[in-house]
# Entry
Amino acid sequence: MKKIFFLFISIICSNIYAQNIDIQLCYQKAAENYPLIKQKEMINKSAELKIINLNSNYLPQVNLNAQATYQSDVTKMSLNIPGVNIPENSKDMYKTTLDINQLIWDGGSISGQKKVESINTQNEQQNLETEIYKLKERVNLLYFNILMLKKNNELLDISRKDIGLKLQKIESGVKNGVINESNSDNLKAEIIKIEQKIIEIKTSENASIEMLKELCGIEITDNAIFTNPEISVNTNVFENNRPELKTFEINIARLSATQNVLSSKLMPKLYGFGQLGYGRPGLNMLSNDFQSFYIVGAKLSWNIWNWNQTQNEKKILEIQKDIINNTKDIYQKNMKMAYQRDKAEIDKFTELILKDLEIINLKTKIAKNSSSQFDNAYITSNDYLNDVNAETMAKINYEIHKIQLHKAKFDYLVNVGKL
# Structure
């Protein structure tokens, strides 16, 4: 009695502390564990540095220049004025200047470039989100494969135990010479076959679990319970919410922002400038002495005609927009076909499950009848095993179809971006 009590307590404790794995947790962990997720911060840091560089164009630009020259001739004064000595300039000249340029107005060029960089960052982040979203397809494949393999093993184990109980019943008859020994040998051989299948399936199950562990970056214990997710779907209306659609929109916005930058090239640019210098000669060209000097002023630069280069570049961008829109239409068409495929899969497994129930009822009746006939030596062990295996296969098909229906629903939700 104590042994039974302790066994009961151990079963309860193992259920309490058993690890529960569900598909939503796998989605979350797969996204967090994916190496690509580290690029999010890198993309943001790169974008910050690009904006800082663009903002630096608003700051004064300072250049230090030095120059030494020797020339073959210099300007000379041929006037002969009594009492006035006009010196001749040296042919070697020296000049050091500090040039300062300050942008006053650039027609919106820098602000436009900053917007383009911001949209480029959004595009990179969205591409990253798309790749991470695709992990759900891989999670579905592994997770539901594990569920199917576990259910296969569970049903095969039940069948093995049932045949084992039948073997125990007939072994006494074999010992007494009432039942042919070949019947017990057939049952033993069938048990061994089932054990082989269990080993094969368990190996595949362990491999799938290891791959899921690697994908999600989580530890999965031997007694982990994989919950069979239930979810309802409405397949009557096609609605695509995949992250790829946002990528198309961002790319269109990027091209529009680039067009605005091109327009700013046609606007005048206004600069302020100053120059501090020291050299020989200075601003006074008649003096042969080293002098300091300065110049301040403003400059307007306006490219009033560039042979329609800007207009042509804008037209190129418009063509690129058309290409993106055309690619989007193709993508939507492919997704619509995928939606029809997923909808058909859901309908197929729904109908198969109904037929499975009918088959199970019939096969269970036949197996029970065969069991009774075998006990009374009306049929051979081969006949009995054929009917039992047919019942087991019917139950396996039923459980597999149920899991495949759940997978089809989750695949559908992932494919239309609703999960």
